[in-house]
Amino acid sequence: MATDQKPNMKTLFTFPIAPSGSQPGGTLTCTTPLSPPDSRIYILTLSSPPDNRLTSPLCTALLSALDTLEFSHPPGVVITTSSLPKFFSNGLDLTHALSDPSFLPFSLYPLFRRLLTYPMPTIALLNGHAFAGGLMLAMHMDYRIMNPSRGFACINELDFGVPLKPAMSAIFRVKCTPGIYRQLVLEAHRFGGTEAKEVGLVDLTGGLKETMEFVEERKLTEKGKTGIYGLMKMEMYRQTVEGYLTAEGHEREEERVRRIVEGEKERKEKGRREVKGSKL
User: Fold this and answer.
1) pLDDT digit string (tens) for 226-251?
2) Hey, what domains does the chain have and what are their CATH numbers?
3) Which of 168, 215, 210, 177 is nearest to 193 (CA)?
């Protein structure tokens, strides 16, 4: 279920998502329900056709929306979803991500860090596919609710030959059981909504109605009132926050991975030489 503008929604603000490379851009709109009246439920709706690819402008729009809500509105709950029927997000724009060395440390990781430590409860409402970076985005939120009949959640980097960066993999180690982590990363398994709920990848199946009921049942609008919600999350996820989602952490891990890759190349070359020599 997409959160298209409805008569019972009030628009709080809209940010543009500028074009980037092959991505035409779009908008991010924040609305709040009028029925029932609760000004502390904030719905961020991404609309960046064709599939909400994660680009620097999209990350900037989300970061700006999160700042606006924290510093200009009462503490509440932030629900992020999509206006596109088929996609929550189809992940990174790989051309953009690979061509811009600043994208990961200064656009994507700051967004992940902001969500992981945000001082209000955050919910990803997955109305459609959440592939690769789209699922990573959802995993950095506190809760996930997924359409039971449309869309898959998966990490499909294995299929197109791009290894996960340490900061991308870290969130799955923290939030998934080892078996599900293996299915996601080493099998590129596609989880439908029902299966995703069964294995704990999402908390609930449904749409906006079920999400609103989930918020009410768990009294999530009250959780940020004391001002320590973000601090609690910083401690919960400190290894990920401090070790991977900073510019320094990114640089350190890039160097570590570079050494591993070079070591693998040397190992394979040595192995090929030895195998070839043994056949002479």
Assistant:
1) 999 999 999 999 999 999 999 999 99
2) 9-245 (3.90.226.10)
3) 210
